[in-house]
Amino acid sequence: MKGVNINPDILRWARERSGQDFEALEARFKKLSFWEKGKEKPTLKQLEAFAKAVHVPFGYLFLQLPPEEPLPIPDFRTFGNKPVVRPSPDLLDTLYTCQERQTWYKEFAQMTHQPAYGYIGSVDVSMEVEWVAEKIRNTIGFDLDVRRACPTWADALRLFIQQVDSVGILVMVSGIVMSNNKRKLNAYEFRGFALSDSLAPLVFINGSDTKSAQMFTLAHELAHLWLNASGISNAGPAPLNNLRREEVWCNAVAAELLVPLSIFITELRRNESVEEALNRLARRFKVSTLVILRRLLDAKWLSRADFDPAWEVERERLRKKSTRNSGGGDFYSTTIARLGRRFTRALTASTLEGQTLYRDAMRMLGVKKTETFNNLCREVGVML
Q1: Are 258 and 295 in contact (CB under 8 A)?
Q2: Are 185 and 204 in contact (CB under 8 A)?
């Protein structure tokens, strides 16, 4: 078959963009090195397979120069106190998918005459962290005692998401791109993002992170919504330095929302070891031990000199723990968590009423079979 004229630099860019190992790709495309050197030309069929393998839009391969792909929202991610240069295809595709869902839901909200949410943009970074955290807590009905009674972190996270969903925020949690189990998201690259809008505020949480870490991410992104500030972050609960004021402030609000310092101080025990305090207080407040470490520093129970090595030890322990495999869970419960119950209900109901095409709905839901679509409808209560 006849080869296609392609700029070899585009092929190299697409491979590097994917983040995949050269040897692994060359095992699939035997002449990849020749293509990249311009010594041979791939066929159209080979190009289509290559585009799919590296998760790049097929049309991009015919460009003369590699395209610029800036993130469409502010990027607060850092590695070693340096900004991230290039987002992965998995991150980009996840973000674009969520933007499409948000656009659909905003149009749905306008069509159904839903009011704008007054809490979006109701605060700014000059306001006291404690006051803002209490404001968010009151809006979503965040009850510390009820959360403490949850038997597991997963239960506490589920309750937190339900509370956030109840005030109109779309919450989507997934560890993969759409429904593709072969494209796993990397929690090290990003933990979550917020897409702010007064009619369709959206939070995405990287489900590959631990349940307790996801709880902090959700709290952090809520602070972004209250600021009316979209953004993406990979920050955990550590006290932040050398970052934009907005991100430092959101982290402080998240810590105070989950673990109010005035209550936390009353729980401290003077002669307790750090390890004992972490385990006891993490169970007590249903948050990550890293959040507890940060609050121990905030409460001056730990000095900075003691905090830094303790943080590194605990972070490494959690990193090793997170590599363990976990069960997949019920398909429909997992799918609804990935999409968000509010979004799933609205989209399936709109489709059944004939206002949205089945084709469009099934694409946004990430399902291919009508039977699966109908079962989702039953799971969210829009079909008997």
Answers
A1: no
A2: no
Beta strand 170-174 with 202-206: parallel, antiparallel or unpaired? parallel
Cα Dmax for the chain? 77
Residue 202 forms part of a structural domain: yes
Least confident of 24-28, 73-77, 363-367: 73-77
In a shared domain, residues 57 and 204: no
* Residue 79: inside a domain: no
The pLDDT of residue 223: 97
CA distances, 215 to each of 272, 287, 293 (Å)? 26, 7, 15
Q: What is the domain count for the chain?
A: 3
Residue 27 counted as domain residue: yes
Report residue 85's pLDDT band, with 50, 70 and 90 as the boundaries. low
Q: How many residues does this entry show for the chain?
A: 384
Among residues 197, 208, 299, 196, which one has the least CA distance to residue 250?
Answer: 196
**377 neighbors 352 (Cβ within 8 angstroms):** yes
Range of the domain at 94: 87-322
Three-state helix/strand/coil letters over 124-190: CCCCCHHHHHHHHHHHHCCCHHHHHCCCCHHHHHHHHHHHHHHCCCEEEEECEECCEEEEECCCCCC
Q: What is the pTM of this model?
A: 0.89
Same domain, 107 and 137: yes
Asked, for residue 81, whether it belongs to a domain, the answer is no
What is the rounded distance in angstroms from the CA atom of residue 20 to the CA atom of residue 31? 16
- 277 and 211 both lie in a single domain: yes
Q: Are residues 29 and 167 in the same domain?
A: no
Q: Give the position of tokens 């609960």.
A: 237
Q: Which of 75, 28, 9 is nearest to 230 (CA)?
A: 75
Specify the DSSP class assigned to residue 120: T
Site of tokens 């209560």: 381
